[in-house]
Protein 1
Amino acid sequence: MVHAALYTARPGWEIVNRVTGGWMIEARDLTKRFGPKVAVDHLSFMVEPGRVTGFLGPNGAGKSTTMRLVLGLDLPHGGTATINGRRYRDLPSPLRTVGALLEARAVHTGRSAFNHLLFLAQTQGLPRSRVQEVIDLVGLTAVAGKRAGGFSLGMSQRLGIAAALLGDPQVLVLDEPVNGLDPEGILWIRNLMKVLAAEGRTVFVSSHLMNEMAVTADHLIVIGRGRLIADCGTQEFIARSAEQSVLVRTPDPDRLAGAITAAGGNVKVADRSAADPGGPPADDATALTVTGLPAARIGELAAAGSVVLHELTPRVGSLEEAFMELTADSVEYGQPGQPAVTGQAAGPAAAGSAPVGQDR
């Protein structure tokens, strides 16, 4: 079970200018190739402190490669990736500055969880007591003495999060941190990231779980085929990319539909379950889905025509819908029964796809 307490910074672990120092991740014209394939294609963005920034993209978009470039694990063929203006390798105390989780199972399988973290702590001059603190924080106290090679994915994930938090860093870079966690663990890491961001830290997190990102990320950076697709607030991304509609229920659908169409709106009969997810409506009203007009205008049209309304509900698209719409041309596979999209078949724009197994 993950420790219920949220992460709390301790005075002994404060980093200079924690809240106001403006630690920031910046990519400028970042480019990385694997043979003829371009995994990251002239990518530029900034990850600012004080908010959770979600990093989204289809499989093969270049997310993991970009994070590796930020952390100095891969060298770019062009451009730069810096943390507070410095390359990762030039940071004087990396673990005290940047906490990273890229691959949860990247541990010595013969070492215990405690000794794995102790080894990392000793490389940065961190005390033994800090190891126990993060062990307790992520809920691994009962298994701290067991070999990490026998851990489940969820336990390995928590060990990776403990390693990322070890130096009480100003910057967090987390690749799919909720993989393998149970619902309680997912809620815990979500709240943890929000608390860290509220303290003024920089939190950069990738995930394929759109519903989770919708309630966690304040800002989104979306890429496809190694190129930037969107860099904006989460709600702005949803509003501009997902279709907005209004659910209307009325016993006089024909007259209302005619008025809406004449006013420039679009009408279609909604799925009956959309009007009442718990079962069929208790009356004979017909459910309509309207696009192209706001709810207020639909209400005005109904009033002008003396049309009775039983429901008038604006609907906002989801992050998943917005993501699927915006990245439809960047996936590496096609619809069932259709050939997959490849670098050759898709033309020059597909050059940003990384080889299979090279990146997520």
Protein 2
Amino acid sequence: MKDGPVRVGIIGSQFQADCQAAAISMIEDDMTVVAVASPTAAHAQGLADRYKIPQVYSDYKELAKDPAVEAVTITAPNALHCEMTIAMARAGKHVICEKPLCVTPAEADAMIEACHANGVLLLYAEELFFTPKYRKAKEMADSGAFGKVHLIKQSEKHFGPHAEWFWDVKRAGGGALLDLGSHGIGFAWWFLGRPKILSAYAHLGTYVHGDKTQLDDEAVTIIEFEGSAFSIIENSWARRGGMDDRIEIYGEGGLTIANLHMGNALQTYSEHGFAYAVEKAPTTTGWTYPVFEELWNYGFPQEMRHFARAIRGLEAPQATGEDGKVVLEAIFAAYASAGLGRKVSLPYQTTAERPVDEWLNRRNA
């Protein structure tokens, strides 16, 4: 086992790459960023300058050759996750992959196999497993505070992603359901103790952003689990006013409700505006709710610290490629449900190239 902070290379240079670089800077004893790779030179150099990253590459394949890099974190477009993971595994690098894990279950299998074959970890970056408020809710539920939990509601909404590739069907593979529903479905499954997923039922639409995408910008999904429990997952790329993220947990003996931002926000009014309020908020004039310690409240530093300890062999991984595949399979079923207009049982076998095709191809038929 190696000593010292895990040396990481970041693939990508936009919003999520910045979040991860900032989070890693908060856990310097456990992890440090030594390289960034991005075909967008200005973005890559900007990230390197902000976080004092010593090495910049224009091609992730060059980063794979860097002996200083022990692990990589992939924040690139979804359609590239599989090829990048396989390349890094073959280079002997541990892989931290942002959600969604990839675009198809077959890709997920290839990623998992490549990492197993090369003796490296495939870690699935689902920060809701590490969000302090949400972990507290699970701690209470596991202690019996609510009795048998039968319903989990999770909502994540904002006015759309930062990077242009998210709006592209081929590069993203899905809209709000894939982008944000990955969080909610994964969270509910994890919260309940990873039970078998029985079915998915979803309604999708492109209500606001039809001028620039065919992808869904609103989604409501119902997931049914073995053990008489279900979840309602609400996702939006059409909500103005910045990020909104919350959970509601209901059991026969109690409930808990957590709003990720409001308990960590300042109720603020400003005629003049200021630098930053909260993720995805387009303005800081008028009434806003600026947050503090935002990355810590999301769980990013805690997630990265755990991944570092897993790489060092000090903790068993809590979020793996196998977890990401389970979530992806449920999302395929949900998109198929929206296209068919009925509940879809799992396991669901797909022949689609990407999740959203299960909906688009039927809608356009």
Protein 3
Amino acid sequence: MKKFSDIRLILYQEQHYQQYKIAERIINSAYAAGKKTIVYKNDFELGTILENIKAGYCSKEVLILKEFLGRKFQKCPGSNNVICCNYYLLNTCFNCLYDCTYCFLNSYLNSFGIVQFVNLDELSTSVNEYVSTYPRNLRVGTGEFTDSLMFDEVTGIAEELISSTCSNKKLFLEFKTKSANVEHLLNIREKGNTVLAWTLNTNYNINLYETGAATLEERLTAAASAQKSGYYTAFHFDPVIKYKGFMDDYYDVIDAMHQFIKPEGVLWISLGCFRYSPGFKDIIKHKYPDEKITVAEMFPGVDGKLRYLTRDRIDIFRGLSDRLKKLFPETFIYLCMEDAYVWNEVFGVHFNESEDLENALSNHLIKFSR
């Protein structure tokens, strides 16, 4: 599993080091000792530096500390014509230590380095203020454009967010990861409704498509430790990727979950099949010439993304959800970015819009609020 130790170069602005505690924390960290650092004056100079170092560094080895001028707290954009869970996002970082073939971040061809945002001091205030006026329980997470915990022991983002929002009983704060990096969070006393969540896949897919991430056993072991220390957990089977015998392998993953994890501590599990936007295939074929993920027959869905046949997806979701319901009967199981027809065929529920799913999930979470 890749860690902060795999970072070789850190770039930052002097004024940010003095102004933002996260920049100071990273630069002064024992984890940063011995790493090369470069101070840049402005974005133009940063661009020049990056062009000059590309021959000597891989993108995943470079950490750029930078202000983020966009929206740091926003609703997940979801996808057109499908049912979404109305999740909310905290933008804390862009890019990731891990190199997942299917990741949509591969679409950003001009992106180099992992960009850690430093102006995050007001995140918890924004969340607490928004939750106070929100009519339902609110799920908020940090893992849309990065991995939430890949080197969180250095940034301290999770601990600060947990400590400053844990008293808010309507908030379910999720940190989604493919790492096993939870040790630094286990002794936090007041955890509130914090959820540590793992994206899971079969060993076959992890080995082929999730380079640098933790193994399946490492993830489940970390999840068991999180539960034991008092955290809620959640899991995401997304993307489910087809290959010969894949369903039996996914059933084995679910059975392994049940061996490691207490079902009553799992709040939600999502299911989503591999999908991609037009043009993405050419991008990953260029980056990963030997990839096998796009050889399956894919067809445009209601949102324009390429997907497995509807009937195939329904069969996959039925099989996985049936197995999950037997072993995790109190857990809310939902589909990620599927249309109303698929929802009805899999679960027999009539969700006509995203608010229907959000309301159902919010009502489920009422009994877990503490």
Protein 4
Amino acid sequence: MESMGRRGYGRKAIVWSAITVLSAAAIVLAAHAGFAAEGTVKVGVLQSLSGTMAISEVTVKNAELLAIDEVNASGGVLGKKVVPVVEDGASDPAIFAQKAQKLIEEDKVVTVFGGWTSASRKAMLPVFERFHSLLWYPVQFEGNECSANIMYSGAQPNQQILPALDWAFEKGYKRIFLLGSDYVFPRTANLILKKHIVHRGGTVAGEEYVPLGGTDFSSVITKIKLARPDVVFNTLNGDSNVSFFKQMAAAGMPPSKLPVMSFSIAEQEAKAMGTSLVAGSYAAWNYFESLDTPVNHKFVAAYRAKYGKEAAVDDPMAHGYIDVLMWAAAVKKAKSFDPNAVRKAAVELAWDWSCMGSIKFAPDQSLYQTAYVGQLQADGEFKILWKSKQPLYPQPYDALAFPGKTCAVN
């Protein structure tokens, strides 16, 4: 009897599992069916509008809304006006997951644009997989992930942190101190960096982490002084950067004395922090506001016309903006809002006219893009010092740090 009961329970579990999957799929299909009879289609915009990450994410939300305005001004998508449903992830991964589910299940959005930290993305991923929906993620990250339910437009490690290491070694900076916020991206990025630093004959002068949002760097700064590095590689996120640079300056180590290469400070963060605090420091990205192309000038002008003539524009904002435009183009190509059809159409698109230059999604749904290193000037612009020779193919799994791992999206 006990054996029969267990078998019966197993059948029930299978049935309930099937019902759960069918219910999630039904939500998506019902949403798509509803749009056919309406003149609008809803999309989610999910960024941190409060908390430690708001310094970075509010303007990504702004850029995404700008792109939605432009899509609507050109006639919408498949004859429908795009209506954004904006939610606040509040710098909390659990809230990101909750809001993602609300957007899909209650608001019936066809796709979502958003996220910043890897913790927020990883919290949302099971939601998008469960509901067969699609997230457009605009920020650089540590790789080690690929999912059919995410379009990864931000840089993979070989498109940001490793080009920055190339530049550092070319400058003769071979003693490198690694500093980051204590979560997934900094720790994995630094694991990759350590492998490559040693492989290239350099020295890891130190490695320290502080909690996300942390403000006390006294012990870290003491360790940096003792380590005497040539450069600090900084993967701090959010407003922790304000405290770090202030305390470094107070300790007699401003960027003019000890170079700092940052991976989450761009024009927007520099402006919010006060340009004088971080002027002279370096950053590695796939876009800078100072890119001198007609398409980029048009993008910057459009953003400032909407949000103020002094507004700064940066890499994650450019990616968020492009994500919306590429989604709209993929929908038109697929002639459908269905996430599966859209993602497959997206990898067939090639853009030579984006504000970032030439870009294209690879089959694993990560973006080909050019890497740049810039130095922040007193006026808040980054002077581009170095660029990759061509757009770099994305490599989600670093071969040196994670040999044998590959990424395949069906």
